Amino acid sequence: MNIRPLHDRVVVRRVEEKKTTSSGLIIPDSATEKPSEGVVVAVGNGKKNDNGDTIALDVTIGNKVLFAQYAGTEIKVDGKKLLIMKEGDIVAVIK
């Protein structure tokens, strides 16, 4: 992937939602919400504090994360839809 976010920004790939129910019914795209779960694919160097020191991010590449439903900006890199957001928009890391 040819993208490196700046400062405290993170690039996330959304996980795919299931398109069928447990009984086999197909759910149309218009009836589903965008998932608020994803995998971190790139991270910035960190945020600078008042002294100019860089504070490292808590998330790393490969972390599975939860984020606010409308967080981030959707971008397209190498034909893939990704989200770029600030680390503060991530609400949890899934272990």
Outline the structure in words.
With 95 residues, the chain is an all-beta fold. The chain is 0% helix and 40% strand. The protein contains no helices and eight strands. The protein has strands spanning 9-14, 37-43, 47-48, 54-55, 64-67, 73-77, 80-86, 90-94. The chain has a six-stranded antiparallel β-sheet with strand order 6-7-1-2-5-8, with no helix packed on it. The protein has a two-stranded antiparallel ribbon with strand order 3-4. It is elongated and about 55 Å long. One of its GO terms (biological process) is chaperone cofactor-dependent protein refolding.
List keywords for this structure.
mainly beta, chaperone, two-stranded antiparallel ribbon, 10 Kd Chaperonin, Protein Cpn10, Chain O, single chain, 95 residues, 40% strand, 6-stranded antiparallel β-sheet, elongated, 0% helix
Tell me the CATH architecture: Roll
- CATH C-level class is Mainly Beta
Number of strand elements? 8
**Oligomer class:** single chain
Beta-strand residue fraction: 35-45%
Largest sheet: 6 strands, antiparallel
The run of helices and strands is EEEEEEEE
Secondary structure tally, helices: 0
Draw up the topology in text.
Elements lengths: L8 E6 L22 E7 L3 E2 L5 E2 L8 E4 L5 E5 L2 E7 L3 E5 L1
Antiparallel strand pairs: 1-2, 1-7, 2-5, 3-4, 5-8, 6-7
Organism: Vesicomyosocius okutanii subsp. Calyptogena okutanii (strain HA)
Keywords: Chaperone, Cytoplasm
Subcellular location: Cytoplasm
Could you provide a short overview of the structure?
The chain is mainly beta and 95 residues long. It has strands spanning 9-14, 37-43, 47-48, 54-55, 64-67, 73-77, 80-86, 90-94.
